[in-house]
Amino acid sequence: MSKELVTCELICSPTSSEQGGTLKSKGMDCEQPIFSVLSGGVKMEVGGKSCDGGGGGAASPAATISDTESGIFSGECELCVEHESELDWFCATEQKLICSHCAIVGSCHGHTVTPLATRVTTVRNQLVDVCEKMQLKALRIERFIDQTLTTKEQKLQAAARRARETVLAQVSAAREALEEEEQRLLEEVHREEERVEQCLLTQRAHWSQALASLSQTRSRLVHTLTHTPDAQLVTSVQDIAERVEEAEGVGEPCDTEQLNLNPGCSDSKLLRGLWATAVLLGPNAYGSPYLKFDERTLSPLLSLSDDFCTLTFLYKKVRKSPPYDPARFDCWPNALGSLSMSSGTNSWVVDVGQSGAFKVGVCYASLERKGSGNEARLGYNTQSWVLSHYDGDYSFVHAGKKVPLQVVRTPKKIGLLLDWPSQTLLFYEPDSGAVLYSVTQHFSAPLLPACAVTDRSITILH
After folding, report:
1. Residue 364 CB partners (closer than 8 Å, separation 6+)
2. How far apart are CA 109 and CA 112, in angstroms?
3. What is the superkingdom listed in this entry's lineage (predicted)?
């Protein structure tokens, strides 16, 4: 290396320990790293004073004072192993302590370096900030514990007390209503039972008397036939005719509905609604995942989705003639479900939100499939029960008789509940749980889900 002196200045701010000074090269921005190299020595200015630095020169007095005042070192100062100079600078690039020679001519030449005291001040300030933030957070936590949580505990107790009171009040009201309904229904059943018993007693007495009279008349006629001489018999024709007329006056016994318990005596909208709600809110409200439409029954007026769950009405121009199948409806836009129901409680849900004209319900498997007569039209025969939506109106249809339904809001879904033990079919709205219509009927054979659509599509939901 040349013996010529290449002059550079290490400028340290007079308040480097407070403002975070950096090494500066003459004519360069203060953010630039040290770049000048000395040959044989370094001229350093610290606080406006110059000092010479050799290969083993000591650190500047200002830096030493700053380090001492800042309390960085106690006892002997650490020295650079390579230059045996005090480690009074910090290399931010390599995150280590260095001496001034390392920054100027050593391994950290060109790196971003700062005086150790400045670095210490920065770190201390950061720690102070962190501690202050931690203290503020601790105060917030204490305030949260002492105020917010305490208030929440008090409010929780009050809210829980009100909730318990609400539950007890509602259950008490429901229990009272159920007890009253139970008493009313039991009394109604008892009155109906007494009525039927009285009818049976009356019928028994009447027909017992008729039987006795008939038996007595028959016995007399038999006696006349077997014990009356011929001459007397032919002269007793008038008497015999009177007795025959008396016997013929006894009518034929016949069974009537008056001799049966009226099933309506135990019917209750309240109990039916509670029972339906309990079932519909359970895990099986949407029925079996295996319930789909039977492709064999699909009308040529409809198309079936790949998952066999969606029926779509086809306009004439896109219809195709499917192969003949005895199970297929050939005129009405009908399709039947794949699962037969003859026991237990069965439920399923149909999405009807896209359709303005549809029918959903049940039918016997024996329902007629061919022709355009009412025998194959859902709801217009004795083998099908459906809820119908057409022209904005909702109705229950069975055997050609329509029962208009009052619907508060247009349902997007229609749920069906078939309880076989009670022989009850119920239509409801799943979103609100409102019962749209229910019917109790003696079903004489297994039932199949039945649907029809003449506007867009409907879908079985799972």
Report:
1. 383, 384, 445, 446, 447, 448
2. 9
3. Eukaryota
Number of domains in the chain: 3
Residue that terminates a domain, selected from 112, 143, 175: 175
The three-class DSSP label of residue 329 is: coil
CA 407, 408, 413, 414 dihedral sign is: negative
147 and 90, same structural domain?
yes
Contacts of residue 395, Cβ cutoff 8 Å, sequence gap at least 6: 387, 388, 402, 403, 404, 405
Same domain, 118 and 184: no
* 49-53 sheet: strands from edge to edge: 10-12, 42-46, 49-53
Q: Check whether residue 385 and residue 371 sit in a common domain.
A: yes
Residue 158 CB coordination number (10 Å) = 10
CATH number, domain containing residue 344: 2.60.120.920
75 lies in a domain? no
Q: Cα torsion at 76, 78, 83, 87 (round to 10°)?
A: -120
Q: Is 158 in the same domain as 302? A: no
Domain boundary residue among 130, 146, 175? 175
Higher pLDDT: 162 or 422? It is: 162
**Residue 393 is inside which H or E element, if any?**
strand 393-398
Phi, psi (deg, nearest 5) at residue 225: -65, -35
Residues 155 and 301 in one domain: no
**CA atoms of 176 and 173, how far apart (whole Å):** 5
Q: What is the 3-state secondary structure (H, E, C) of 244-285?
A: HHHHHCCCCCCCCHHHCCCHHHHCCHHHHHHHHHHHHCCCCC
For residues 295 and 432, membership in a common domain is answered with: yes
- Asked if 425 contacts 416 with a C-beta cutoff of 8 angstroms, the reply is yes
Q: Which domain, by its residues, includes 233?
A: 178-251
Q: What is the DSSP letter of 160?
A: H
Q: Which residue has the higher pLDDT, 205 or 245?
A: 205
Q: For residues 447 and 336, what is the distance between their CA atoms, to the nearest angstrom?
A: 10
* Closest C-alpha among 133, 131, 91, 98 to residue 112: 91
Q: 429 and 302, same structural domain?
A: yes
Q: Sheet holding 358-364: strands in order across? A: 334-336, 447-453, 358-364, 384-390, 393-398, 401-405
Across the chain, what does the average pLDDT equal? 81
The token pair at 351 is 């999405």
Question: What pLDDT digit, counting tens, does each position of 419-458 carry?
Answer: 998 899 999 988 887 889 999 889 999 999 999 999 999 9
Please, is 287 exposed, middle or buried when counting C-beta atoms within 10 Å of its C-beta (0-12, 13-18, 19+)?
buried
Same domain, 236 and 197: yes
